[in-house]
Records
---
Amino acid sequence: MELVEGITLKEYIAKKGRLAVREATSIAIQVSQGLEAAHNSGIIHRDVKPQNIIISTDGKVKVTDFGIARAATNNTISTAVMGSVHYTSPEQARGGYSDAKSDIYSLGITLYEMLTGHVPFDGESTVAIAIKHLQEEMKSPEIYVADLPRSTVQIIYKCTQKSPDRRYANMSELIRDLKESLVNPDGDFVQIASNAGGRTVVISKEELGAIKDGYNSARASQENIYHTVNPAENGAPGQRNSDRSISLAMIRTLMVWIPECMVIVAMIIRERILIRTELISTMRRMRTVF
């Protein structure tokens, strides 16, 4: 095991407030190269964050805590791993499959923090922050730093796409764009795939009218079915409409809360797994010492 003397990137950001574009890009390239080597060996970090990046006294950047990532098998969201939730990818927050693109997402969040001094998603609890990763659009880094180069902003956006398929395919592609941004900061070379096969789909007024007509027809059909199933209520339209409104309101509420409840349950389960893993790791270290 290598002993590295230096400070964490988190401490370095706190000390300087935010980093210059060239310095942040240089650090991101070194981190990407370290992660690329790990990915080529079949290792996914799953907990990339400034706290796990060390800047040595001679200026070299080191990525740490691979052992914890392997032991947990997933980036566990818990207060026991302080700060992880701010950098976790949507698929990890959801409890789904994570791969090299999850590390790319976390590195994009880290680059965002290096340049602005802020994380894009914050909240009162780990659950609230994780839900923001899943549902909310990221604040533009230009809100904090208005003169950021176009290419750097686009790199951050591509790294932090909600869908893994729209991020960089691998670290090699990210390193290529990061290096290009140093020599061509305002270039338009970062390609982000659209949600509609690479082009923007504009709905015409006629198409919009057809959609509305289809919706109205479907709604009318549902009402006819409702009247057929509940013929005794035909004499009380006011009560029937009121009951239907209450039912629709309940359905809408359930549609909003069920996904969030699933996220909360997944986090509770993973938090218990992390606590158990930490206890086992502590016991092993104690046996090594004594």
---
Amino acid sequence: MGATLRPMRFPRESRASARNGRPRSSFGFNLSRELGRIAGGLLLAATALASALACGSRTGLWGSDEATVGVVADSGSGGDATADAPSPAPLPPIDAGKRSAPSRVDCPDAGATLIYVVTASNQLFSFLPTDGSFTFLATLACPTPVGESPFSMAVDRKGVAYVQFTDKRLYRVSTSTGACSVTAYSPESATSQGFGSFGMGYATNDVGPSEFLFVAGSQGGTQAQSPGLGRIAPTSFELTKVGNFLPDIARSELTGTGDGRLFAFYTKGEQSGPPSFIGEIDTQTAHVVAETAFPSVDQGKGWAFAFWGGDFYMFTSPGEGSTVTRFRPLDSSLDVVGRLPTRIVGAGVSTCAPAR
């Protein structure tokens, strides 16, 4: 990419001027012409130099910009290799609309199905979603060690409640009388899989009528994340881990539907919030597949969760007593629909409850 410069020659006097007797030099004329040639050559050389620089910028010469970008992109050179990592795709909002017709061969009248709640002081209540009213049913007298209290609750398809107490054992409770007995669930076996205390809820296998009791492990002590999602078999009460939540969620309570879906009410850390979230959980992988955030909902000192009639009911205790907040996915409305002067720590509803 260069140019050859011609040597400058000063021409002799022309023969024509000698014959005419007028010595006439062509030096001035030829000099101008030669200077023009030199200028052209210099311009060509400058062009060649610019081209060389341009070629250098693509091959990394002279500290080119592209060479610098290459160094930054190389994680081995000390650059931030995570800067270009793709962000997780945002989750879609939850959709509680009925997807499949659930089996109701063993169900009572769905409209008569209630939500049941248990308080930290062992009181069992029913909650009627249509008008937000509570009815006291019984005071539990489970065979627990002195000083233990309810931690979480779920209700199976037949309307029988299962309550985990702070001793980490699981008790069977009649929602009619409050009669209570210990189950075959082994806290020691569950602890070996990382599960101690947990939130819980029933969901059917596909459209039912068979169902599993799902549990969401609570992180605590030295655990950096939740133990994940587990499943308790209906007769042996053996716990099997499904998987870790992805993304990780904390302080989870669960509720399920008659068409095989499972939902969680949770925060994103060890604090009670706000914000709080409702997410749909894949029962096969424990992955969160949909999520809706609630910036104003604080779980507080006690929380519970239930699905009924296409709506979600969040029972929270940010102060004294409990507040019931209904989320209606159909129109995204959020309304306080009930209060109880004592602290609710568990809620459960049959998978026979109405889906809409």
---
Amino acid sequence: MKRGYAASILLAVLLLSLPVSAQNKTESVTVTGQAAQKRMEIMRSFTGSYVVPSRTIGKVARWVNPICPLIIGLQPDQKLAVSERIKKDAKLVGAPVQARQACRPNVTVAFAMDPQELMTKIIDDRWDLAQTVFGDIDGPMHARKLSKISSPIQAWYGTTIRDVRYFPGSQEIAYPDVTGYCGPSTPCYVTQGSFLDDGLKSVFSTVFVVVDLKKIAGREIGTIADYVAMLALSQTDAFATCRNLPSITNFLIPDCDASLKTAALSDADLAFLRGVYKTNASERLNLQIGDIVREMEKSPAGRDVKLQAPEQSNSAAPAAK
């Protein structure tokens, strides 16, 4: 049995009997026009407040293998609703989705009454499970640091590297002077000779999302599913940052202006995600961010944003790294 699939089963056992309560809460957002140069600054700020490059090669990570969500801790009908919403959102922005219902999970979403207790239990009792849950970690000390819950919905990411052949690295490269240095812990990659585009890509292998049931009580399940989809499709560690455009990621931040909160993926969110999946995955990070911003500029969010965004809270720190 593959480690990722076994980890999903173990998580299901840990969260077997958890309930959920979700009711409707919808907010309407209206935006006005403004000058083109200021629009670019606002969209770049939005992108910069969200994007976190992968720990492996420092680029924007995205899904290459089709996503297969596993939802834990809800009733069967709610599990299906969340899973289908995540897959629908993924298709909207160009992310690959597994067509078969029976598939090996790579996006695990755990709804828990006490997320911190769950994460601590994983760290203390199941280190084999922690290696899958926390993704890109340097060891037990780093995993324990990452296990701290700071937001109602939080995510952890596992990534791998693909080279110009779209291979995940090899112990053997067809160059005599290089092959001797390749091994199981130090795979070799075939790159291309460009400072701006070296041919290496960062791709997701796993994403693990935890949702605090107590803190989302009374919220519409579709809203929570959209929030989870945003985190599952793009990497961030700034879970408590109020962003300067209307966004689903602002929905649960208490001191964020109401005009910036949306109950579904906003135009800005969708344009951002489309940018992530359209950008050249092997470019340098600054070029990738430029691609994302240009995609946002073409969207309704980019054409019609406020000249002065409502004040945001900058006091919230990103999750531990």
---
Amino acid sequence: MRYHADGTLDASFGTGGKVTTAIGSLDDEAFALVLQPDGKLVAAGYTSGASSIAFALVRYSTDGSLDTSFGTGGKVTTPIGSVDDEAFALVLQPDGKLVAAGYTNDGSNEDFALARYRADGSLDGSFGTGGTVVTPIAGTYGEADALVLEPDGKLAAAGYAYNGSDNDFALTRYLGQVCGDGIVEAPEQCDDGAANGDGTSCCTTTCEATAPGTDILACTTTTTTSTTTSTTLPCPDNGFDGVDCLLRSVVPPCIHERMPGSVRRRITAATTLVDHGMDARTAKKARTLARRASKVLKSVVAHASAAAAKGQLSMLCGDALDGVLQEAARRTKQLAASHP
């Protein structure tokens, strides 16, 4: 069900604000729900048939209809053990992958169970064994009821374990991305892997689409010397159009984060000044706009650095902002001094 802010049902969703979805032949229950940046909803739980129970995920379009691009007709079922598998938690990674957590029961033991899915609902074979991970906890029974994605890409699951006489808190943590493995995993935006020789060629700092509107990402790097900072980017090397391209390249690494308002507003202001600079009819006007943009960008760098230090931005986004904005500030300063 979807509700308006005042608690009334949103009639534009499903039928009168309600949606029901049959998956298996018996019971189907949802316990977790995530909202994707595109407005789609993904629910996770279980589906029960005549002989077994399996993980179940369903994705809905913004109007409540099944998203047929996900799994089979919008639905995905994943048997892990032989008897009973149920998902109670779900997280969405920045790369669009989904991770569900719960338990798997083979009839004699019940263990923590995780499954990771690609954006299309298929199991992500780079995760665990064929896309699933089973973790026995001390004792006979263990169940994961909560899951979080840490800033470094690791996953932490929490639940309980039965020790033979009572239940105990149980927590597990799983490794996230491996730098240089050639697989793009959160918080990476791109990963060159062995293509450039070794793990250090992994790109985790900054990257951007190779062409507007595409999902193809290209790694970019930032290098600093004692006197200058240079950034290798698919952007023009000089002029206002080069600065404009730089400013727009900070979006991909931060697209899944809630950027602090003080940073976002200043980036918007700097971009507007640069846009006006490209259209300036006189050299004097261009220099004035460049000088103002340079001052705003220096302020953005300071605010972004403070936000990253407070944990308001991930390391990935913070590094991207720092490298790109420093370079943009340097270029606008040069424009202010030398624009013809």
